[in-house]
Amino acid sequence: MDELGVNMIPAGSAQAKGRIERLWGTLQDRLVQEFILNGIKDTESANKFMLSYIKKFNGRFSVVPKGEPVYRKLGKSINIDHILCRKIQRKLDGGSAFSFWGKYYQLLSGGKPAATIPRSRVSVLTSTRIGIKAKYSGKVYSVAKLEARPKAKGYVNVTKDKRLLPTKPARNHPWKSGIHNRPKSDPSDEELALGLFNSTIAWETE
User: Fold this and answer.
1) How far apart are CA 120 and CA 135, in angstroms?
2) Given phi > 0 = left and psi -120 to 50 = alpha, else beta, which region is 15?
3) Is the pLDDT of residue 154 over 60?
4) Are 109 and 144 a contacting pair, CB within 8 Å?
5) Which of 45, 59, 158, 169 has a CA positioned 20 to 30 A from the CA of residue 73?
6) Are 100 and 124 in contact (CB under 8 A)?
7) Distance between CA 2 and CA 10 in Å, rounded?
8) How far is CA 185 from the centre of its chain?
């Protein structure tokens, strides 16, 4: 419904619920009795009977809506066959192919395998009108049936370079020296700093 731009408004009133409940009562009770009275015992006979029963039912219970129809025209960019179909999620492999019902299919673009990202999600569209198609990145592609799973190409084997791995610092590294192993200050340094602080020359301003 979202793809069609239809906003669903659920019926919450007692009047609306009463209408649908009457319909269920007809289908579950009245229709069953009609089948018995007309001697219908198989599906084929029931389908033939329904052609005349629907007209009879609508003539008795249908209500003509008030106002003008508010249906909108279908946009040119919307393909109704790509919306009203069965949609199943799959993942692409390295050869722009996916598995569907035990068989492999490959996305085509201009008669050649489409450029895709491996392990991306693809929506498989299937119906009696369109057959099997695939929607990838917002675009619908035709597919070709494959005899076997395609081999992935273009992969690069990445090996770890031991020279780039982090190494532990040596035991005598300054980072590993504790606070007790740090070099101590010379007492003369403290005396020199104290003399500079108490000097009147250091605090004189121009």
Assistant:
1) 11
2) alpha
3) no
4) no
5) 59
6) yes
7) 15
8) 66
- Main-chain dihedrals φ then ψ at residue 163, nearest 5 degrees: -70, -20
Structure tokens at 98: 């996916």
Q: Does pTM top 0.85 for this prediction?
A: no
C-alpha 127 chain-centroid distance: 20
If DSSP codes are grouped into helix, strand and coil, which group holds residue 161? coil
Question: At which residue do the structure tokens 């209500």 appear?
Answer: 63
Q: Kindly write down the DSSP assignment for every residue of 153-179, as one continuous string.
A: -S-------GGGS--PPPTTSGGG--G
* CB-CB neighbours of 143 under 10 Å: 22
Report the C-alpha gap between 152 and 51 in whole angstroms: 55
Q: Output the six-digit token pair for 46.
A: 């029931």
CB 120 within 8 A of CB 92: yes
Mean pLDDT of 119-136: 92
Give the separation between CA 149 and CA 100, rounded to whole angstroms: 11
| CA 97/CA 113 separation, integer angstroms | 9
Q: Which residue has the tokens 């007492």?
A: 187
Whether the CB-CB separation of 113 and 96 falls below 8 Å is answered with yes
Q: How many residues does the chain have?
A: 206
Q: What confidence tens digit (pLDDT) does each residue in 89-101 have?
A: 999 887 888 888 8
